[in-house]
From TrEMBL, chain A:
Signal peptide: none
Record domain ChsH2 C-terminal OB-fold: where: 54-124
Source organism superkingdom: Bacteria
Organism whose genome encodes this protein: Streptomyces liliifuscus
Protein name as annotated: OB-fold domain-containing protein
Pfam families in alphabetical order: OB_ChsH2_C, zf-ChsH2
Residue ranges of every copy of the ChsH2 rubredoxin-like zinc ribbon domain listed in the record: 17-52
UniProtKB/TrEMBL annotation, chain B:
Source organism superkingdom: Bacteria
Domain Thiolase N-terminal positions: 7-111
Protein name according to UniProt: Lipid-transfer protein
Domain Thiolase C-terminal: residue ranges: 275-392
Molecular function terms, GO-annotated: acyltransferase activity, transferring groups other than amino-acyl groups
Amino acid sequence: MSRTRTPVVTGWFTGEGEEFRLLGTRCSACASVFFPREDAFCRNPGCPGGELAEVPLSRRGRVWSYTDSRYRPPSPYVSDPELEWRPYALIAVELESERLVVLGQTVPGVTVADLAVGMEVEVVPGVLNEDADTTWTTWHWRPTGVTA
Amino acid sequence: MTDEVAVLGAGMHPWGKWGRGFVEYGTVAARAALADAGVDWRDVGSIVGADTVRGGYPGYVAGATFAKALGWQGARVASVYAACASGAQAVNTARAQILSGLADVVLVVGADAAPKGFFRPPGGDRPDDPDWLRFRVLGATNPTYFGLYARRRMAVHGDTLEDFAQVKVKNAALGALNPNARYRKRVTAEEVAASAVVADPLRLLDICATSDGAAALVLSSMEFARRHGAADPVRIRAVSTVTPRYPNTVLDLPDIATDSAVAAEPAADTFRASIARAAYEEAGVGPEDLSLAEVYDLSTALELQWYEDLGLCGEGEAAKLLREGATAPGGRIPVNVSGGLASFGEAVPAQAIAQVCELTWQLRGAAGDRQVAGARVGITANQGLFGHGSSVIAVR
Protein backbone atom coordinates (compact mmCIF):
# COMPACT_ATOMS: atom_id res chain seq x y z
CA MET A 1 0.00 0.00 0.00
CA SER A 2 1.41 3.39 -0.87
CA ARG A 3 1.17 6.24 1.54
CA THR A 4 0.47 9.83 0.62
CA ARG A 5 3.45 12.13 1.14
CA THR A 6 2.22 15.13 3.15
CA PRO A 7 4.25 17.97 4.69
CA VAL A 8 3.97 17.93 8.48
CA VAL A 9 3.19 21.66 8.24
CA THR A 10 1.69 23.31 5.19
CA GLY A 11 3.75 25.93 3.38
CA TRP A 12 7.03 25.68 5.32
CA PHE A 13 9.04 23.90 2.62
CA THR A 14 8.83 22.77 -0.99
CA GLY A 15 10.60 20.81 -3.70
CA GLU A 16 12.53 17.56 -3.93
CA GLY A 17 16.21 16.71 -4.01
CA GLU A 18 18.46 19.61 -4.95
CA GLU A 19 15.42 21.84 -5.38
CA PHE A 20 14.27 21.42 -1.77
CA ARG A 21 13.91 24.73 0.09
CA LEU A 22 12.54 26.05 3.36
CA LEU A 23 9.92 28.71 2.66
CA GLY A 24 9.61 31.95 4.59
CA THR A 25 8.02 35.27 3.82
CA ARG A 26 9.64 38.64 3.15
CA CYS A 27 8.13 42.06 3.87
CA SER A 28 8.04 44.25 0.77
CA ALA A 29 8.45 47.41 2.86
CA CYS A 30 11.39 46.57 5.17
CA ALA A 31 12.79 43.30 3.70
CA SER A 32 12.47 41.44 7.03
CA VAL A 33 12.35 37.68 6.54
CA PHE A 34 10.14 35.43 8.63
CA PHE A 35 10.43 31.73 9.34
CA PRO A 36 8.11 30.12 10.18
CA ARG A 37 6.26 32.19 7.60
CA GLU A 38 4.37 35.27 8.77
CA ASP A 39 1.44 35.90 6.44
CA ALA A 40 -0.61 38.45 8.37
CA PHE A 41 1.59 41.31 9.56
CA CYS A 42 5.24 42.34 9.41
CA ARG A 43 6.54 42.08 12.99
CA ASN A 44 9.28 44.69 12.66
CA PRO A 45 8.07 47.51 14.98
CA GLY A 46 9.87 50.09 12.82
CA CYS A 47 8.11 49.00 9.62
CA PRO A 48 5.02 50.76 8.28
CA GLY A 49 3.80 47.35 7.12
CA GLY A 50 4.14 45.85 3.69
CA GLU A 51 2.94 42.92 1.64
CA LEU A 52 4.41 39.62 2.77
CA ALA A 53 5.60 37.51 -0.14
CA GLU A 54 6.78 33.90 -0.03
CA VAL A 55 10.54 33.50 -0.32
CA PRO A 56 12.78 30.42 -0.37
CA LEU A 57 15.48 30.48 2.31
CA SER A 58 19.17 29.82 1.72
CA ARG A 59 19.99 26.15 1.32
CA ARG A 60 23.16 26.34 3.36
CA GLY A 61 24.08 27.77 6.72
CA ARG A 62 26.41 27.28 9.68
CA VAL A 63 25.82 25.47 12.94
CA TRP A 64 24.97 27.95 15.76
CA SER A 65 24.62 25.13 18.23
CA TYR A 66 23.44 21.52 18.46
CA THR A 67 22.12 18.95 20.89
CA ASP A 68 20.15 15.72 20.90
CA SER A 69 17.23 14.04 22.62
CA ARG A 70 18.31 10.92 24.51
CA TYR A 71 14.83 10.38 25.93
CA ARG A 72 11.64 9.92 23.93
CA PRO A 73 9.85 13.28 23.64
CA PRO A 74 6.18 13.38 24.66
CA SER A 75 3.30 13.78 22.23
CA PRO A 76 2.50 15.52 19.97
CA TYR A 77 5.88 14.16 18.82
CA VAL A 78 5.04 10.85 17.16
CA SER A 79 7.17 7.78 17.85
CA ASP A 80 6.47 4.09 18.15
CA PRO A 81 6.58 3.10 21.84
CA GLU A 82 7.14 -0.51 20.75
CA LEU A 83 10.49 0.38 19.21
CA GLU A 84 13.65 1.16 21.11
CA TRP A 85 14.20 4.90 21.28
CA ARG A 86 16.88 6.13 18.87
CA PRO A 87 18.08 9.64 19.70
CA TYR A 88 18.13 12.25 16.95
CA ALA A 89 20.26 15.36 16.88
CA LEU A 90 18.90 18.89 16.57
CA ILE A 91 20.88 21.70 14.95
CA ALA A 92 20.26 25.43 15.16
CA VAL A 93 21.54 26.83 11.87
CA GLU A 94 22.53 30.43 11.11
CA LEU A 95 21.50 31.54 7.63
CA GLU A 96 23.85 34.33 6.63
CA SER A 97 21.84 36.27 4.09
CA GLU A 98 18.57 36.06 6.06
CA ARG A 99 20.41 36.73 9.37
CA LEU A 100 18.28 34.29 11.31
CA VAL A 101 18.68 30.93 13.03
CA VAL A 102 16.50 27.92 12.14
CA LEU A 103 16.24 24.76 14.22
CA GLY A 104 15.86 21.35 12.66
CA GLN A 105 16.60 17.66 13.05
CA THR A 106 19.67 16.19 11.39
CA VAL A 107 19.42 13.53 8.70
CA PRO A 108 19.25 10.04 10.23
CA GLY A 109 22.68 8.68 11.12
CA VAL A 110 24.30 12.03 11.89
CA THR A 111 24.89 12.34 15.65
CA VAL A 112 26.25 15.05 17.91
CA ALA A 113 29.67 13.39 17.59
CA ASP A 114 29.66 14.40 13.91
CA LEU A 115 28.85 18.07 14.57
CA ALA A 116 30.70 21.23 15.57
CA VAL A 117 29.64 24.85 16.03
CA GLY A 118 30.43 26.75 12.83
CA MET A 119 30.25 23.69 10.56
CA GLU A 120 28.45 24.14 7.22
CA VAL A 121 25.17 22.27 6.76
CA GLU A 122 22.51 22.15 4.08
CA VAL A 123 18.78 21.60 4.14
CA VAL A 124 17.45 18.37 2.63
CA PRO A 125 14.03 16.73 2.46
CA GLY A 126 13.29 14.21 5.20
CA VAL A 127 10.63 11.99 6.68
CA LEU A 128 9.32 12.77 10.16
CA ASN A 129 7.09 9.75 10.69
CA GLU A 130 4.68 7.44 8.89
CA ASP A 131 1.26 6.16 9.77
CA ALA A 132 -1.11 3.83 7.90
CA ASP A 133 -1.99 6.32 5.16
CA THR A 134 0.57 9.08 5.30
CA THR A 135 4.28 9.72 5.11
CA TRP A 136 4.75 12.99 7.01
CA THR A 137 7.61 14.92 5.40
CA THR A 138 9.85 17.52 6.98
CA TRP A 139 13.22 19.23 6.56
CA HIS A 140 16.53 17.88 7.82
CA TRP A 141 19.95 19.47 8.17
CA ARG A 142 22.92 17.57 6.79
CA PRO A 143 26.60 18.49 7.06
CA THR A 144 27.82 19.45 3.59
CA GLY A 145 29.95 16.79 2.02
CA VAL A 146 27.88 14.03 3.62
CA THR A 147 25.80 12.19 1.09
CA ALA A 148 24.14 9.52 3.25
CA MET B 1 12.10 55.01 40.22
CA THR B 2 8.71 54.07 41.63
CA ASP B 3 7.56 53.93 45.23
CA GLU B 4 8.15 50.81 47.23
CA VAL B 5 5.80 48.19 48.62
CA ALA B 6 6.37 46.18 51.79
CA VAL B 7 6.75 42.41 51.98
CA LEU B 8 4.89 41.62 55.19
CA GLY B 9 4.78 37.87 54.83
CA ALA B 10 6.29 34.98 52.90
CA GLY B 11 5.28 31.34 52.90
CA MET B 12 5.75 28.09 50.99
CA HIS B 13 4.47 24.58 50.75
CA PRO B 14 7.55 22.33 50.63
CA TRP B 15 8.38 21.25 47.05
CA GLY B 16 8.38 17.65 45.94
CA LYS B 17 6.10 15.15 44.24
CA TRP B 18 3.28 14.96 46.74
CA GLY B 19 0.46 13.69 44.53
CA ARG B 20 -2.10 16.22 45.67
CA GLY B 21 -3.84 19.15 43.99
CA PHE B 22 -2.35 22.59 43.42
CA VAL B 23 -5.14 24.27 45.43
CA GLU B 24 -4.04 22.46 48.56
CA TYR B 25 -0.41 23.50 48.10
CA GLY B 26 -1.35 27.11 47.38
CA THR B 27 -3.63 27.34 50.36
CA VAL B 28 -0.93 26.01 52.70
CA ALA B 29 1.54 28.58 51.31
CA ALA B 30 -1.04 31.39 51.56
CA ARG B 31 -1.84 30.56 55.19
CA ALA B 32 1.89 30.46 55.98
CA ALA B 33 2.41 33.88 54.39
CA LEU B 34 -0.59 35.36 56.23
CA ALA B 35 0.63 33.95 59.54
CA ASP B 36 4.12 35.29 58.83
CA ALA B 37 2.62 38.72 58.14
CA GLY B 38 0.32 38.60 61.15
CA VAL B 39 -2.56 39.54 58.83
CA ASP B 40 -6.04 38.00 59.02
CA TRP B 41 -7.21 36.75 55.61
CA ARG B 42 -10.44 38.72 56.09
CA ASP B 43 -8.39 41.93 56.20
CA VAL B 44 -6.78 41.28 52.80
CA GLY B 45 -8.22 43.64 50.19
CA SER B 46 -7.06 41.80 47.09
CA ILE B 47 -5.79 38.39 46.02
CA VAL B 48 -3.71 37.72 42.92
CA GLY B 49 -3.21 34.16 41.69
CA ALA B 50 -0.52 33.02 39.28
CA ASP B 51 -2.20 30.60 36.87
CA THR B 52 -1.29 27.00 36.18
CA VAL B 53 -2.27 25.55 32.82
CA ARG B 54 -2.39 22.05 34.28
CA GLY B 55 -5.21 22.78 36.71
CA GLY B 56 -8.01 23.10 34.14
CA TYR B 57 -10.46 25.93 34.88
CA PRO B 58 -9.52 26.20 38.57
CA GLY B 59 -5.92 26.73 37.43
CA TYR B 60 -6.88 29.34 34.82
CA VAL B 61 -8.76 31.32 37.49
CA ALA B 62 -6.22 30.74 40.22
CA GLY B 63 -6.97 33.94 42.16
CA ALA B 64 -10.60 33.02 42.67
CA THR B 65 -9.71 29.36 43.31
CA PHE B 66 -7.43 30.28 46.19
CA ALA B 67 -9.92 32.88 47.49
CA LYS B 68 -12.63 30.23 47.62
CA ALA B 69 -10.33 27.74 49.35
CA LEU B 70 -9.35 30.32 51.97
CA GLY B 71 -13.04 31.27 52.38
CA TRP B 72 -14.86 33.86 50.28
CA GLN B 73 -14.50 37.22 52.00
CA GLY B 74 -15.20 39.66 49.18
CA ALA B 75 -11.61 40.57 48.24
CA ARG B 76 -10.77 42.05 44.84
CA VAL B 77 -9.37 39.26 42.63
CA ALA B 78 -7.00 38.86 39.67
CA SER B 79 -5.44 35.88 37.90
CA VAL B 80 -2.37 36.21 35.71
CA TYR B 81 -0.63 33.93 33.24
CA ALA B 82 2.86 34.56 31.91
CA ALA B 83 4.26 31.02 31.82
CA CYS B 84 7.36 30.84 34.03
CA ALA B 85 7.06 34.59 34.70
CA SER B 86 3.51 34.22 36.09
CA GLY B 87 4.72 34.72 39.64
CA ALA B 88 6.52 37.96 38.83
CA GLN B 89 3.46 39.27 37.00
CA ALA B 90 1.33 38.38 40.02
CA VAL B 91 3.72 40.33 42.25
CA ASN B 92 3.61 43.20 39.77
CA THR B 93 -0.19 43.20 39.65
CA ALA B 94 -0.33 43.33 43.43
CA ARG B 95 2.23 46.12 43.50
CA ALA B 96 0.32 48.16 40.91
CA GLN B 97 -2.87 47.85 42.95
CA ILE B 98 -1.08 48.96 46.13
CA LEU B 99 0.73 51.90 44.50
CA SER B 100 -2.44 53.09 42.80
CA GLY B 101 -4.38 52.94 46.06
CA LEU B 102 -6.76 50.20 44.93
CA ALA B 103 -5.70 47.92 47.78
CA ASP B 104 -3.71 48.23 50.99
CA VAL B 105 -2.86 44.56 51.52
CA VAL B 106 -2.60 41.98 48.73
CA LEU B 107 -2.08 38.22 48.92
CA VAL B 108 -0.08 36.74 46.02
CA VAL B 109 -0.21 32.96 45.49
CA GLY B 110 1.29 30.55 42.95
CA ALA B 111 1.06 26.77 43.05
CA ASP B 112 1.44 23.82 40.72
CA ALA B 113 1.14 20.07 40.61
CA ALA B 114 3.53 19.30 37.78
CA PRO B 115 3.55 16.16 35.63
CA LYS B 116 6.43 13.71 35.81
CA GLY B 117 8.98 14.00 33.05
CA PHE B 118 8.93 16.55 30.26
CA PHE B 119 6.52 19.44 30.18
CA ARG B 120 4.31 19.09 27.11
CA PRO B 121 1.60 21.11 25.41
CA PRO B 122 -2.06 20.35 26.14
CA GLY B 123 -3.78 17.87 23.79
CA GLY B 124 -5.30 18.56 20.40
CA ASP B 125 -3.86 19.53 17.01
CA ARG B 126 -2.86 23.18 17.03
CA PRO B 127 -0.60 23.98 14.06
CA ASP B 128 -0.83 27.72 14.85
CA ASP B 129 0.65 27.21 18.33
CA PRO B 130 4.47 27.48 18.39
CA ASP B 131 4.64 25.36 21.51
CA TRP B 132 2.67 22.55 19.86
CA LEU B 133 4.71 22.88 16.66
CA ARG B 134 8.13 22.51 18.27
CA PHE B 135 7.05 19.21 19.82
CA ARG B 136 5.20 17.87 16.77
CA VAL B 137 7.72 18.86 14.11
CA LEU B 138 11.04 18.61 15.99
CA GLY B 139 10.43 16.79 19.26
CA ALA B 140 12.18 19.80 20.79
CA THR B 141 11.66 19.42 24.55
CA ASN B 142 12.74 22.10 27.03
CA PRO B 143 16.01 20.27 27.79
CA THR B 144 16.97 20.30 24.11
CA TYR B 145 16.94 24.11 24.21
CA PHE B 146 19.03 24.02 27.41
CA GLY B 147 21.43 21.71 25.54
CA LEU B 148 21.70 24.16 22.65
CA TYR B 149 22.55 27.02 25.03
CA ALA B 150 25.08 24.88 26.91
CA ARG B 151 26.86 23.70 23.75
CA ARG B 152 26.94 27.28 22.45
CA ARG B 153 28.62 28.47 25.67
CA MET B 154 31.21 25.70 25.36
CA ALA B 155 31.98 26.70 21.78
CA VAL B 156 32.02 30.47 22.29
CA HIS B 157 33.30 30.91 25.86
CA GLY B 158 35.15 27.67 26.54
CA ASP B 159 32.89 26.55 29.40
CA THR B 160 33.45 22.92 30.34
CA LEU B 161 31.25 20.09 31.58
CA GLU B 162 33.11 20.39 34.87
CA ASP B 163 32.03 24.05 35.15
CA PHE B 164 28.41 23.03 34.64
CA ALA B 165 28.74 20.26 37.23
CA GLN B 166 30.16 22.70 39.77
CA VAL B 167 26.96 24.77 39.54
CA LYS B 168 25.00 21.69 40.58
CA VAL B 169 27.47 20.89 43.35
CA LYS B 170 27.05 24.43 44.73
CA ASN B 171 23.27 24.52 44.48
CA ALA B 172 22.76 21.03 45.88
CA ALA B 173 24.89 21.90 48.92
CA LEU B 174 22.63 24.92 49.52
CA GLY B 175 19.42 22.99 48.88
CA ALA B 176 20.53 20.52 51.55
CA LEU B 177 20.15 23.40 54.03
CA ASN B 178 16.65 24.43 52.87
CA PRO B 179 13.65 22.68 54.46
CA ASN B 180 11.41 23.77 51.56
CA ALA B 181 13.61 22.23 48.87
CA ARG B 182 12.66 18.99 47.15
CA TYR B 183 16.23 17.66 46.92
CA ARG B 184 18.14 17.92 50.17
CA LYS B 185 21.23 15.92 49.37
CA ARG B 186 24.71 17.10 48.47
CA VAL B 187 25.87 16.07 45.01
CA THR B 188 29.43 15.54 43.78
CA ALA B 189 30.86 16.40 40.37
CA GLU B 190 31.40 12.68 39.85
CA GLU B 191 27.70 12.03 40.42
CA VAL B 192 26.79 14.68 37.84
CA ALA B 193 29.22 13.15 35.35
CA ALA B 194 27.82 9.67 36.00
CA SER B 195 24.19 10.69 35.42
CA ALA B 196 22.55 9.94 32.08
CA VAL B 197 22.84 12.40 29.18
CA VAL B 198 19.42 13.97 28.54
CA ALA B 199 20.26 16.52 25.86
CA ASP B 200 23.91 16.64 24.86
CA PRO B 201 26.00 18.01 26.59
CA LEU B 202 23.67 18.17 29.59
CA ARG B 203 23.04 15.32 31.97
CA LEU B 204 20.16 14.51 34.27
CA LEU B 205 21.79 16.34 37.19
CA ASP B 206 22.43 19.42 35.03
CA ILE B 207 18.70 19.86 34.39
CA CYS B 208 16.01 20.82 36.86
CA ALA B 209 13.15 18.43 37.59
CA THR B 210 9.43 19.16 37.56
CA SER B 211 7.88 19.47 41.00
CA ASP B 212 4.78 20.18 42.99
CA GLY B 213 5.10 23.26 45.13
CA ALA B 214 3.67 26.60 46.17
CA ALA B 215 4.78 30.02 47.33
CA ALA B 216 2.90 33.06 48.61
CA LEU B 217 3.58 36.63 49.65
CA VAL B 218 1.63 39.25 51.56
CA LEU B 219 2.42 42.68 50.14
CA SER B 220 1.22 46.03 51.48
CA SER B 221 1.64 49.74 51.21
CA MET B 222 4.45 51.23 53.29
CA GLU B 223 1.80 53.18 55.21
CA PHE B 224 -0.09 49.97 56.10
CA ALA B 225 3.19 48.32 57.14
CA ARG B 226 3.96 51.16 59.54
CA ARG B 227 0.45 51.04 61.04
CA HIS B 228 0.83 47.29 61.30
CA GLY B 229 3.99 47.67 63.37
CA ALA B 230 6.45 46.76 60.64
CA ALA B 231 8.68 49.83 60.73
CA ASP B 232 11.49 48.41 58.63
CA PRO B 233 10.05 45.72 56.37
CA VAL B 234 11.70 44.13 53.35
CA ARG B 235 10.61 46.28 50.42
CA ILE B 236 10.13 45.55 46.74
CA ARG B 237 11.80 48.30 44.78
CA ALA B 238 11.49 47.03 41.21
CA VAL B 239 9.60 44.46 39.14
CA SER B 240 10.73 43.98 35.55
CA THR B 241 8.16 42.50 33.18
CA VAL B 242 9.71 43.61 29.87
CA THR B 243 9.25 41.94 26.49
CA PRO B 244 12.07 41.34 23.97
CA ARG B 245 12.98 43.88 21.29
CA TYR B 246 12.83 43.01 17.60
CA PRO B 247 14.84 41.33 16.28
CA ASN B 248 15.27 38.78 19.05
CA THR B 249 18.36 36.97 17.78
CA VAL B 250 18.87 34.33 20.49
CA LEU B 251 16.80 31.22 19.82
CA ASP B 252 14.18 31.21 22.55
CA LEU B 253 11.76 28.61 23.88
CA PRO B 254 9.37 27.65 22.28
CA ASP B 255 10.42 29.08 18.91
CA ILE B 256 11.75 27.12 15.92
CA ALA B 257 13.65 30.13 14.58
CA THR B 258 14.86 33.57 15.61
CA ASP B 259 13.79 36.91 14.20
CA SER B 260 15.73 38.05 11.16
CA ALA B 261 18.23 40.85 11.66
CA VAL B 262 18.14 41.81 7.96
CA ALA B 263 16.07 44.95 8.38
CA ALA B 264 16.78 46.05 11.94
CA GLU B 265 19.96 45.88 14.02
CA PRO B 266 19.63 43.83 17.21
CA ALA B 267 19.75 45.77 20.48
CA ALA B 268 23.13 45.91 22.21
CA ASP B 269 21.95 43.60 24.99
CA THR B 270 19.98 40.36 24.70
CA PHE B 271 16.46 39.85 26.01
CA ARG B 272 17.70 38.19 29.19
CA ALA B 273 20.11 41.06 29.85
CA SER B 274 17.36 43.61 29.21
CA ILE B 275 15.19 41.98 31.89
CA ALA B 276 17.82 42.72 34.53
CA ARG B 277 18.67 46.15 33.15
CA ALA B 278 15.05 47.27 33.45
CA ALA B 279 14.99 46.12 37.08
CA TYR B 280 18.26 47.90 37.90
CA GLU B 281 17.03 51.13 36.30
CA GLU B 282 13.74 51.03 38.16
CA ALA B 283 15.42 50.27 41.50
CA GLY B 284 18.27 52.75 41.06
CA VAL B 285 20.85 50.09 41.91
CA GLY B 286 23.43 48.16 39.94
CA PRO B 287 25.04 44.74 40.08
CA GLU B 288 27.74 46.09 42.40
CA ASP B 289 25.07 46.81 45.05
CA LEU B 290 23.76 43.24 45.23
CA SER B 291 24.11 41.02 48.27
CA LEU B 292 22.62 37.97 46.54
CA ALA B 293 20.80 36.79 43.43
CA GLU B 294 18.20 34.08 42.84
CA VAL B 295 18.35 33.09 39.18
CA TYR B 296 16.41 30.72 37.00
CA ASP B 297 18.71 27.70 36.76
CA LEU B 298 16.66 25.49 34.48
CA SER B 299 20.06 24.05 33.70
CA THR B 300 23.48 24.45 35.25
CA ALA B 301 24.73 26.13 32.08
CA LEU B 302 21.85 28.60 32.15
CA GLU B 303 22.81 29.74 35.64
CA LEU B 304 26.21 30.74 34.22
CA GLN B 305 24.48 32.65 31.43
CA TRP B 306 22.52 34.64 34.03
CA TYR B 307 25.75 35.73 35.76
CA GLU B 308 26.62 37.60 32.59
CA ASP B 309 23.08 38.80 31.86
CA LEU B 310 22.81 40.24 35.40
CA GLY B 311 26.14 42.03 34.95
CA LEU B 312 27.83 40.07 37.75
CA CYS B 313 30.75 39.65 35.34
CA GLY B 314 31.60 40.40 31.73
CA GLU B 315 30.47 38.32 28.77
CA GLY B 316 32.19 34.94 28.73
CA GLU B 317 33.50 35.32 32.29
CA ALA B 318 30.80 33.38 34.16
CA ALA B 319 32.76 30.16 34.53
CA LYS B 320 35.69 32.17 35.91
CA LEU B 321 33.37 33.85 38.42
CA LEU B 322 32.10 30.44 39.50
CA ARG B 323 35.58 28.96 39.77
CA GLU B 324 36.67 31.89 41.97
CA GLY B 325 33.87 31.04 44.38
CA ALA B 326 32.28 34.48 43.97
CA THR B 327 28.79 33.00 43.57
CA ALA B 328 29.12 30.52 46.47
CA PRO B 329 28.24 31.28 50.09
CA GLY B 330 30.81 33.71 51.49
CA GLY B 331 31.67 34.90 47.98
CA ARG B 332 31.22 38.39 46.57
CA ILE B 333 27.74 37.66 45.17
CA PRO B 334 26.18 34.36 46.25
CA VAL B 335 23.74 32.99 43.66
CA ASN B 336 20.84 30.64 44.36
CA VAL B 337 21.42 30.34 48.08
CA SER B 338 17.94 28.77 48.25
CA GLY B 339 19.36 25.83 46.31
CA GLY B 340 17.72 27.12 43.12
CA LEU B 341 15.61 25.12 40.72
CA ALA B 342 18.37 22.51 40.93
CA SER B 343 17.09 21.74 44.43
CA PHE B 344 13.44 22.78 44.06
CA GLY B 345 12.47 21.76 40.52
CA GLU B 346 9.93 23.66 38.48
CA ALA B 347 6.48 24.44 39.84
CA VAL B 348 5.85 27.01 37.15
CA PRO B 349 3.46 29.58 38.67
CA ALA B 350 5.19 29.38 42.06
CA GLN B 351 8.86 29.67 41.22
CA ALA B 352 9.18 33.44 40.65
CA ILE B 353 7.25 33.97 43.92
CA ALA B 354 9.48 31.46 45.70
CA GLN B 355 12.52 33.46 44.59
CA VAL B 356 11.06 36.55 46.30
CA CYS B 357 10.34 34.48 49.44
CA GLU B 358 14.04 33.59 49.58
CA LEU B 359 15.06 37.24 49.16
CA THR B 360 12.65 38.16 51.95
CA TRP B 361 14.07 35.64 54.41
CA GLN B 362 17.64 36.58 53.46
CA LEU B 363 17.03 40.33 53.79
CA ARG B 364 15.39 39.78 57.17
CA GLY B 365 18.45 37.81 58.30
CA ALA B 366 16.16 34.85 58.91
CA ALA B 367 17.53 32.31 56.43
CA GLY B 368 19.19 30.09 59.02
CA ASP B 369 22.17 28.01 57.89
CA ARG B 370 22.11 29.49 54.40
CA GLN B 371 22.02 33.14 55.51
CA VAL B 372 24.10 35.59 53.46
CA ALA B 373 25.72 37.83 56.09
CA GLY B 374 24.46 41.41 56.09
CA ALA B 375 22.20 41.00 53.05
CA ARG B 376 20.76 44.39 51.98
CA VAL B 377 19.85 44.11 48.27
CA GLY B 378 18.70 41.06 46.34
CA ILE B 379 17.63 40.38 42.77
CA THR B 380 15.62 37.58 41.19
CA ALA B 381 15.84 36.67 37.52
CA ASN B 382 13.53 34.46 35.54
CA GLN B 383 12.14 34.28 32.02
CA GLY B 384 8.68 33.28 30.87
CA LEU B 385 7.96 31.36 27.67
CA PHE B 386 6.64 33.57 24.83
CA GLY B 387 8.68 36.67 25.78
CA HIS B 388 7.91 37.46 29.40
CA GLY B 389 10.63 39.19 31.40
CA SER B 390 10.77 38.59 35.13
CA SER B 391 13.03 40.18 37.68
CA VAL B 392 12.38 41.55 41.16
CA ILE B 393 14.67 43.68 43.30
CA ALA B 394 14.06 43.73 47.05
CA VAL B 395 15.92 45.77 49.66
CA ARG B 396 16.17 46.18 53.38
